[in-house]
Amino acid sequence: MIEKYAQFVGEDEIDAIVKLAERLQDLSILHVNSTAAGGGVAEILNRMVPLMRELGLRVDWKVIRGDAEFFTATKTFHNALQGTVRDVPSHLYSVYEKWQEINANELDLDYDVVFIHDPQPAGLIKYRKRGKWIWRCHIDLSTPHPEVWAFLKRYVSMYDLAIFHIPEFARDDLEIPQLLIPPSIDPLSPKNKELPPTTVERIVAKFDVDTERPILLQVSRFDWAKDPLGVVEAYRLAKRHVPDLQLVYLGSPAHDDPEGEAVYKKTVEAAGGDRDIHLLMLPPDSHVEVNAFQRAATVVMQKSIREGFGLTVSEALWKSKPVVGGRAGGIKIQVIHGVTGFLATSPRVAAHYVTFLLREKEIREKMGAAGREHVRRNFLITHHLRRYLMAIAYATG
Ligand code: UDP
Q1: Residue 175 C-alpha to ligand 1 middle, in angstroms?
Q2: At 248, phi and psi to the nearest 5?
Q3: Which atom of ligand 1 is nearest to the CA of 257?
Q4: How much distance in Å is there from the Cα of 60 to the middle of ligand 1?
Q5: 208 neighbors 278 (Cβ within 8 angstroms)
Q6: Is the ipTM of this complex over 0.95?
Q7: Dmax over Cα atoms in the chain, in whole Å?
Q8: Among protein residues, the one whose CA lies closest to atom 23 of ligand 1
Q9: What is the mean pLDDT of each run of 10 residues along the chain (397 residues)?
Q10: 41 C-alpha to center of ligand 1: Å?
Q11: How far is the first Cα of the chain from the last one, in angstroms, to the nearest whole number?
Q12: Angle formed at CA 366 by CA 364 and CA 369, multiple of 5 degrees
């Protein structure tokens, strides 16, 4: 299957991956995260793990468990680490610690290389018996809540290596080696593979969205960091100029995100019964549906206030759609302002660029093509895989 990616990245890239993998055949490798579906980390692991196995590597993926209190703790930490929550009740630290111990007792962590994804399972390192452990951070750590970061840092400092998406997330106050590896999308996955236009139309029509009229799309969990209310506001402002505009906000629940429902309700309130606003809550495995909407969209938004990377941006760019994105985290390396889309902080500025793109078909197409090429060069799974293999080689000496 790895050969199939040569059509996108060339034979040399594939050869390099195969050669690197050959050197690592004897190692047992484990990925650990906090959800099997929903959100970008699960999205990547669902594609990365089979690909690594196909290269002959011995790879497993395990998901930690927890109760509602644990996921409230980890979501609070997540928000605090990304700088959006200041109030962190102190009992959450012991809830976190308790579940690290439970999971460490239940999971076999006896591997040569262990990738721990994000803060939720980071504390498992305390129970390591052997192997090289890599902390793979997918969130924005540029302005963390000092106390939560101090708590997490005690664990992270025990790792052999930390991997961040972009330079501004790397930490001066960590003494372990740090690598920068952006995430990726898989061009052959159900989410990103080519779809016949008739399939796109059929799926979009099924949700009562009119394929003849312009569609503004955001695909995101219902999370304040994704600014759903800002999306609705930007749509409203753009609709003043483009009256037949429709908004589709496509969300799905994630097992490790307890806030989704409350955010969804507030977004429904903000939509106020506008029949051109489609707030769709689909199951997390609705990959082909997401694919179809991204292809049907006229303009894609990712108006995040905080963002780790924002896979949805690369997914849209790959489908040759310009993206109007928030000036946050990894969006800034995907949306090259004026080339692959526009960066906008306020709903007003976002609406301005959305309106501009809705009116200018030629520019839309030009930016769309630039976006696809930008993703092809930088954010496809083969790049990511090669860098992971290099990280493993580095960690194991
Ligand atoms: N996603 C999805 N259905 C939805 C919402 C999101 O399949 O209704 C997917 C989306 O296509 C992307 C991932 O979930 O692959 C979200 O990753 P991203 O990095 O954008 O954000 P995160 O949720 O990790 O913060």
Answers
A1: 32
A2: -120, 120
A3: 23
A4: 22
A5: yes
A6: yes
A7: 62
A8: 39
A9: 96 97 96 92 96 97 97 96 93 98 98 98 98 97 97 98 97 97 97 98 97 97 95 98 98 82 94 97 94 98 96 98 97 98 97 98 98 98 98 96
A10: 9
A11: 28
A12: 105
